Every structure is written in C-alpha cells, then in structure tokens.
C-alpha cells in the first residue's frame, strides 16, 4: 500500500492487488501458482511520500524474510533470458543463499545475470552480500547516482563510471531528471529523459530496470532500451503509486517500437 501525504489534503491509503494476482492479471508467468507457501504472515510496507517526491518506508517483511532455496525452480531459471537478483536479498542469509544458488543454475545454463544495488543502506550494511551476488561480474547492473557514489567512494561522475563499469558488461546509472548513463565497457552513452513533475519517486528504479530488460529482450539496443526505461520510470514518478495501467504501458511500448523502427540505433531522447 502507499500512504501519500498531499500537503494540506488528507493522507490517502490505496489498497492494491496481492502480488500473485497482479502478476496473473498482467500476464506474467510465475511459479507462485505451483509453489506451496510456507506458513507465516504476509509482509507489508507503508510508504510515506513528502512534497519533494521523496519517500520513507516502514517495512514488515513477514514471510518473505524466510525466503530460501525451496522457492527456486531450476528448470524455469535455466530457460529464462535473464536471471535478475534483487539486491535486498543481501540482507537475508537464506535469501542470499537462494539467490546465489539460482545464480549458479543460471550461469551454467548461459542465462544473462543482472542485479541492482537497491539502496544506499544495503551498500553500507550488506556489502559482502552484494559482492557475492556480483561475484566475478554480471551482464547487467542497475543503480542510481547516489548508490554509485557510495559504492565507489567518490562524487566524480567519470571516476564512478570507470570504477563501476568493471562490475558488469552493461551498467545503467540513473540520474533522476538528468536521465541515465549506459556503460558498455569503455563506451559511455548519456540518454536524456523527458521532464516531468515528480510526485512520488517510489518504484522508479524498479520500473527502470524492468523496462530496460524487457526492451533488450525484445529487439531494442541498449540506447533504445534506456530511452524506453526512462519513459516508463518518468510515468511512475509523475503519479502517486508505482503501478502503471496497461493503457499507459501500451502507449509507451508502441512509441518505443515506432521509434526503434524509424530511428534505428539512434536514441536522442525525443
């Protein structure tokens, strides 16, 4: 749920579908329909958004704190295009072990590996777990500028790019209203975004990562994928709540496909 502070207006408590229901409605294949859930209480997260569009979270992990290797389905992992490890799993001993076990399955099957640095607190307090997830390198790494600064111990963008590009074949460093920087080895590409009025930044990073990976697995090059991800993340921050309607997603996808076909490899953010 999202608890939104709208200045002088009353706070709004917005219920949402359960995670499993949301996946099914959006046509996402999931092993949750054939995995027996362990006993426990469903987790919850209250997100408080201030007028500057920043958020504070009060989270109860519930049963998700007990996530372990029994949730893995090796056949599904091996048949995937990308194996995405959520960086927050570095905070859970059993969750981290499950992520690493799944990583090995994916690596053995030639599946691309991806992760996110998730949050500055994860870097400060759970870096050994993140190091284990990254290991000898990934195919895709996602982080925002603040996370990259803390990881690299620097605020110099060029130094950060040189250092963080060693962690993955492709690194997406998001910079809020300045768009993002895509690092492919020594190649650095800045992909601007369309200015929006930010209301709620909750979920922007997750949307960017998901949209980028969707695009690269559907025929878009990295510049085009970053443009698509910028558009999707921009829509998220310009509304309260981090779920986009199928209509909005459909429009962004159609625009991205038209752009891909008409502009080829060029991605100028227009």
Describe this structure in words.
With 270 residues, this protein is α/β, with parallel strands linked by helices. The chain has 2 domains: 1-66, no CATH class; 67-263, Ribokinase (UDP-N-acetylmuramoyl-L-alanine:D-glutamate ligase), CATH 3.40.1190.20. It is 39% helix and 19% strand. It is built from 9 helices and 10 strands. The strands form 2 sheets. The protein has a 6-stranded mixed sheet, sandwiched between helices. The chain has a 4-stranded mixed sheet with strand order 2-1-3-4, with no helix packed on it. Helix 5 (145-152) crosses helix 6 (157-164) and helix 7 runs antiparallel to helix 8 (222-237). It starts with a strand and ends in a 7-residue tail after the last helix.
Short overview:
Helix content is 39%, strand content 19%.
How many helical stretches?
9
Instruction: Please give the domain count.
Output: 2
CATH superfamily of the largest domain: Ribokinase
Summed over residues and divided by their number, the pLDDT gives a mean of 88
Helix content: 25-40%
- Binned strand content: 15-25%
Q: Please list the strands of the largest sheet in the order they lie side by side.
A: 5-6-7-8-9-10
Based on the coordinates given, report the CATH architecture of the largest domain.
Answer: 3-Layer(aba) Sandwich
Shape: globular
Gap from first CA to last CA = 34 Å
Any idea of the CATH class of the largest domain?
Alpha Beta
Using DSSP, what is the number of strands? 10
Integer-rounded radius of gyration: 18 Å
Main sheet overview: 6 strands, mixed
CATH topology (level 3) name of the largest domain: UDP-N-acetylmuramoyl-L-alanine:D-glutamate ligase
